[in-house]
């Protein structure tokens, strides 16, 4: 992140993360708070490690970083996480998928990713996933150009893929037909065939010979979201570590990473 981008981000969150001085001590400045937060997101280093470079105690970092992440997400989400609201928006996404990945009438690629956390007190196996560790699930939808159009974080790791989708606002919007999805067949290159508009997700593990070509096309579109997760983890390495904090703070960390990614890409 260059200096100009940092200053722009600081101006966005300054009013939220500002703290008054007290008679006992001088408050940590907004600039230092933001620097510490970005260092944690980018490096994934522990609070004990960061205290040397930030000159802030681990206990205080445990408050500063989640608070700053909440501020970053709330200030930037409206501008950098715009969900499609019209048929024209969806058609533009479908056009990109056809041009870049040769799949018809695709409105997005969606998938979930486990974010590792410490076992929460009195939670039992609630957050324990099938891969053998405790986690929350990050659910994301992306367009053909690796840009996020929807994210949801916080569902416990035991939930299936279908269950994760049901926890999102998108699921409710599908149910009440409020997504303004174009009518089937309004955009297709196939003659005499009416295709519905769809979102692509995980493919079946076992397929027949006749399904292979179709699955190949689906995979080309679906790997966009997997690649986006890879790009995110390489940029914000905290997503590759076990986030040793309360699950409520984990959500703010993850959401801040994604909105910052979109800002940098823009």
Summarize the structure.
By secondary structure, the chain is an alpha+beta fold.
Strand order of the largest sheet: 3-2-1-4
Number of domains: 2
Distance between the termini: 13 Å
Can you give the mean pLDDT?
87
Rg, Å, rounded: 21 Å
Number of helices: 9
Main location: nucleus
InterPro entries: HARBI1-like, HARBI1_dom
Keywords: Hydrolase, Metal-binding, Nuclease, Nucleus
Domain DDE Tnp4: 110-261
Describe this structure in words.
It is a single chain. With 266 residues, this protein is of the alpha+beta class. It folds into 2 domains: 3-78, no CATH class; 81-265, no CATH class. Helices cover 49% and strands 12% of the residues. It contains 9 helices and 4 strands; from the N terminus they run αααααβββααβαα. Strands 3-2-1-4 form a 4-stranded mixed beta sheet. Strand 2 (135-142) and strand 3 form a beta hairpin. Helix 1 packs across helix 4 (58-80), helix 2 packs across helix 4 (58-80) and helix 3 (47-54) packs across helix 4. The mean pLDDT is 87.
């Amino acid at each position: 992140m260059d200096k100009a981008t940092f200053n722009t981000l600081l101006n966005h969150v300054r009013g939220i993360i500002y703290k008054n001085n007290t008679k006992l001590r001088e408050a940590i400045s907004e600039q230092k708070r933001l620097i510490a937060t970005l260092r944690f997101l980018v490096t994934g280093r522990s609070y004990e490690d960061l205290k040397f470079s930030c000159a802030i105690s681990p206990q205080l970092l445990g408050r500063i970083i989640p608070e700053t992440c909440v501020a970053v997400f709330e200030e930037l989400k409206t501008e950098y996480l715009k969900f499609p609201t019209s048929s024209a928006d969806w058609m533009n996404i479908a056009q990109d998928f056809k041009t870049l990945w040769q799949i018809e009438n695709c409105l997005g690629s969606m998938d979930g990713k486990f974010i590792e956390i410490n076992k929460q007190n009195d939670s039992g196996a609630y957050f324990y996933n099938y891969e053998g560790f405790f986690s929350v699930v990050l659910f994301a939808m992306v367009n053909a150009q690796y840009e996020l159009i929807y994210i949801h974080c916080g569902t416990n790791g035991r939930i299936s893929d279908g269950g994760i989708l049901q926890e999102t606002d998108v699921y409710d919007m599908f149910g009440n037909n409020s997504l303004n999805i174009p009518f089937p067949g309004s955009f297709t290159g196939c003659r005499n065939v009416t295709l519905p508009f769809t979102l692509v997700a995980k493919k079946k593990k076992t397929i027949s010979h006749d399904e292979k070509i179709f699955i190949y096309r689906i995979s080309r579109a679906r790997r966009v979201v997997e690649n986006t997760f890879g790009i995110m983890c390489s940029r914000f390495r905290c997503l590759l570590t076990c986030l040793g904090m309360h699950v409520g703070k984990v959500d703010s960390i993850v959401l801040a990473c994604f909105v910052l990614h979109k800002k940098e890409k823009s």
